[in-house]
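pinned: reference chain
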Amino acid sequence: MKMKKSFFQYSVLLFLTIGLLAGCKEDMDSIKSQGTSITKISAKTATNQSVANQAEELLIKRDDITGVRGVNKDKELLIAIKVPQKDRFQLSTIEKEVKKELKKQYPEHNIQVSTDQKIFLELDKLEKKLEKSKVGEKELKKELDNIKSLMKEEA
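pinned: its structure tokens
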């Protein structure tokens, strides 16, 4: 009788383990299939976004980043990054590495980096407006100031 009971317990444990592993694998596959995302904004708009575009291309090559949004004005560069779920515990480390990498590439710019989802969404909206040329200089400055204040709240 003891043998039947222990065999049953091991069988249940084995099936639970297999089920958990299969669930985790499916989650990782969905993360990989989401791919990486960047938005290229034309450099021909009233506000040249070539610095932000180059920074996005540089950062999206990293394995620990799945999405990048960025906007620049004059000597300011605001970047928001998306990090895979498995790397969420190293957010501050990744943020510091990214800022250091960008500072090396663009030493004359004031660079701010965020991993906050809200900042990512705000920069995404602003990029789309810039892409459609719906933002003037004054409005861009106002939007950037608003995003910078959100970044300060986050810190």
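why pinned: Residues 26-34 have pLDDT under 50 and may be disordered. The first strand starts at residue 67 and ends at 73.
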